[in-house]
Structure formats: C-alpha cells, structure tokens
Amino acid sequence: MTRFARRFILSLAAFYLLMASPIMAAPVIADIQIAPAATSTRIRLIASEAITISAFVLTNPDRLIIETPDINFQLPPDSGLAAEGAIKSYRFGKTAPDRARIVFDLASPMVPGDIVNSTAMGGGAYTVSLFLTAADRQSFDKAAQISALSIVTKEPAAPNNAATHLDNRPLIVIDPGHGGNDLGATGVTGLFEKDVVLAFSIALAKKIEAQGLCRVLLTREQDVFIPLDDRVKFARQHNAAVFLSIHGDTIASGVDVHGATVYVGDERSSDAEAAKVAEYENKADSNGGYTPQTTDSSVADILGDLTLRETRTRSSLLARELVTRIADTAHLNRNPLRAAGFRVLRAVDIPSALVELGYMSSKADVDQLISSEWTDRMTTRMADALVEFLGPPRLSQDTAKP
Ligand SMILES: [Zn+2]
C-alpha cells in the first residue's frame, strides 16, 4: 500500500468516525445571573450557543424550574448557594441524556413571563433571559397546578436515537428479579425465584407485545446477575415510561402466608413487613457478590425534590391499577398495596412498582406460579393494567394536586 493510499484510508476512517458520532458537544452555561427588583426578577443564562428553554413553577416548596437541552454547566462550585431577592438558592443538573434543569427555590411567589434570547454579549456568548413577576399566593398556586398537570399528562420523553424514532409507543421495562449467583428465594419445591420470575416476565413481555400498544424491554432475558442500580439505569437510558420489577416473596416462619403484593418505592415503609421485604430484596447485590457504589446523590437531589412527588403519585396509580386488575386472579395478600425503600424502585422520574407475585414459601402459590393457565390469566391482567395506566390520562383528584 502506498503512503498516499494509507493516508487516504485513515482520513476516510476519521471522516466516518466523525459522521457516526451521534451527538455534538452540549452547550456550555458559564454563568447564571440574577437581577432582583421590587416586583420582578430577571434570570439571565450566559451560554456558548443559543438554547431553547421553558419555565414553570411548582409548590411545596415554591420552586421555579427552567428546562433546557443537555447542558455542560461550567459554574463555580458555590453557584446557587447565596440568596438574591426572590431567589433563595438554585441547583442544576441533567435529568435525561438530552435534558437538564435548573431549579430555583423561591423566597416569595413569582411566575415566569417572557423569555428573551440575545447575542449581544461580547466574545460570541449568547444570553437567555427569563423575566419573573411577583404573584399573589392564589395565582402562583394556580400556575403551579397547571404545570403539575402538564407534567403528569406529558407524553413519555422523546426517544433520542434513530432506532426508536420509528416507534414512539411508550416503553415498558420489565425487570425479572435476581439472576446468576443471586438466586432469590428458594421455593418449597426447590425452585429458585430467579427462574420463576424470569419465565413469568418473558410471558408478560410477550403478552404486552401481542397487544401492540406499548414497546417492552427486559432488564435480563437470561440467567445472569445484574446489579440493582444497573436495572434502574437501564430503564432511564431507554426512557422507559414504566418500570416493573417482578419477584416472588418468601417468609422464614412456617406460617402459610400467601398471595400477591404490589410495592411502590418510599424511604418510609408502609409497615414493618414491607420494610423487611425491601431489606431482603436489597440484599440481591451482595448475594450476587457485588458491592454497589453509593448512589449519586447530586443527581438524585436535583431530580429528587423536583420530580419525585409527581413520579410517586403516578407510581401509586400504577400500583393501584395493578392490584385492581389482578384481584380476581391472584389471591391478594393482606394489604396488597405497600411501600418500602426498594433500591430497584429509585428511578425518581419513572413510575415504578415491584410485584411480589406470590410466596415461594407457599406450596399453593408456587403451584400457581408454574401453571401456564394461571400465568396466562395473570399476564393478561397485568398487561391490561399497564395499558390502562399508560393510556389517555384520566386525571383523578390525586394527580390534579401538585
Ligand atoms: Zn426477589
């Protein structure tokens, strides 16, 4: 090969690498300037290129949220800590691969008004200014209620790669519990929870696919170990509209407890039993020989107080829908709707639930779990519940409250 030919091939390769690179570098925000006045406040973002933002408010506590595309925040570490007029403090961070938010804690009610883009800064910088106006309690609450409703009814996040552009049906991520070295509970007949829940999850996925209204992905399709946090990460990376973890319960005592339970994530457990179940399921990582990294709390903080309440409302609706639908098929546990701090239910922006299908320690439950007739009925009910949940939103009073 001549030197010229080699160089030509190399530059061709570089060219294709460049073309294949799916995303350009995110715009930089280098400063957030707050200019308070008596009845209005201007927030100005200094950016490396023109960016499109939107703004809304939320209550409890009063906050202003600016939504942006993905941003490379290059701000001093103490940014946002000091108070300025109506703005007590602010935080910022990524909320999805292609989105970010800046959250301003408000000292007094303010509502967002005009957004003005300009290029007037020297050095090629762009500015985006948002003007806030002081509002009375009632108008602020009303504005917050409208934003909360639009968050609840918002379509699932737009897919961000070419493969999913073709299919914008909502995505359901089903998470068969345990796998690999982490066996889960061992059933009365010697069956492992990891195998029972995988078979059930595959059946549920097929049922959902057959309905054709939603897409579905499994966090595992084989007998492999996957850390709990990676399961959540998987759902977030794929912009899941729902995350559903499937498990089979167990109980140490010989008492014949049986039936299904649906859990939502909450650091305050609904009861001591729920707390114990979560503690047991959270041991999955160490059972699989894996030590999880501590959670990235900076992201969790930003997303957390912002989105968590909305997501929790939706998770409860999802759980309730599931319990209602499966009531005639699965014998329901006493208090079938519970809450506890499951590590796998920590996606702060994806409605999530964990279904304990039944007790691996109950012969009656295990017999059901391996019955194809029961699995068929149960997966039909659950698929219906998911579609109902993701369908046209019916705004109950729960969701209307921000
Ligand atoms: Zn389990």
CATH class assignment of the largest domain: Alpha Beta
**Rg to the nearest angstrom?**
24 Å
Shape: elongated
Mean pLDDT across every amino acid position: 82
- Widest sheet: strand order? 11-10-12-15-13-14
Bound molecules: zinc ion
- CATH homology group of the largest domain: Zn-dependent exopeptidases
For the largest beta-sheet, the strand count, sense and barrel status come to: 6 strands, mixed
Q: Spell out the helices and strands N to C.
A: HEEEEEEEEEHHEHEHEEHHHEEHHH
- The CATH topology of the largest domain, please? Aminopeptidase
Describe this structure in words.
- This protein has 402 residues and is α/β, with parallel strands linked by helices.
- The protein folds into two domains: 28-153, Immunoglobulin-like; 162-400, Zn-dependent exopeptidases (Aminopeptidase, 3-Layer(aba) Sandwich), CATH 3.40.630.40.
- Helix content is 36%, strand content 27%.
- It is built from eleven helices and 15 strands.
- The protein has helices at residues 3-20, 137-153, 162-165, 193-211, 228-237, 272-282, 284-287, 297-326, 363-369, 372-390, 397-400, and strands at residues 28-36, 40-47, 54-58, 63-69, 72-73, 87-96, 99-106, 110-118, 126-134, 171-176, 215-218, 242-249, 260-265, 332-340, 352-359.
- The strands form three sheets. A six-stranded mixed sheet has the order 11-10-12-15-13-14, with helices on both faces. It has a five-stranded mixed sheet with strand order 5-1-2-9-8.
- Helix 4 (193-211) packs across helix 10 and helix 8 (297-326) crosses helix 10 (372-390).
- It starts with a helix and ends with a helix.
- 37% of the residues are buried.
- The structure holds zinc ion (ZN).
- The site of zinc ion (ZN) has 6 residues, from loops.
